[in-house]
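Quick start: what a row looks like.
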Amino acid sequence: MLPCLFRRGITSARAPVPDRSQGRHIVASGRAEGRRRFQWEGRSKPVSPSPEKKLLKIVVLSGAGISAESGLPTFRGAGGLWNGVRAETLATPEAFADDPQRVLDFYNFRRTMVRDAEPNAAHRAVAALEQRHQVTVVTQNVDDLHERAGSTDVLHVHGEIMTARSSRTPSLKVAMQDRDIRLGDLAEDGAQLRPDVVWFGETVRHIDDSLDRIRAADRFLVVGTSLQVWPVADWVHHAVNAGERVIVAPELARCPDGFDWLRGNACEHVPRVAERWLDA
């Protein structure tokens, strides 16, 4: 496969041509006795796997861009400020040791934003793939929008903001849901609770599981990431067995070899990819 193929709205890395078509909601319909009738806006009718069709192994690697389309800020780049402070400076063990209240305030604010956000058409399209195929979502996002959309196999490589953990024993965790983490909230081992997220300098989670799923994938979809965060950015090169590799992103410094680049937003392109793969 040539890198960044150019066909039918697929953007070439050398000559970007954005797909200008609109329509966030894809509807496929047909005869009731034979073909699938499906809507993306949370009203999908389950599709039973056809016995004559092989279930595909699909891996979706998602980044901040897919959640940004649900209104969650990325806190990266020029706009990555919170109360005048660079958000990245709060995402370290040293920042928590120096000023735990400020770090807790920042993550309590982010947790409230996640609770108020809703899964979008791209999240729901990814979840809909489970109606016919075996799907794993490997996400860099700490929110729970994939799960709320209906995805059942999600690997959070950077942790989960809706959970707190002991600052001494990472395996001791508490579901926060609608609660804030306060100074004085202790885990079972007596240590202060902290957000269950991976800070700079800490080890990314689920590395082996993620790479095993990616290497075994029949289809691989990358969405909402500019592939600038390591080591996850390197994982795309492990999808050597995938018959189709697609990346959805508005901008890329370089499209990985062997990928079709759909230049644009997740809500525009992911439902189209999902509809096609549902028919695979």
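That is the whole record. Residues 1-40 have pLDDT under 50 and may be disordered. The radius of gyration is 20 Å.
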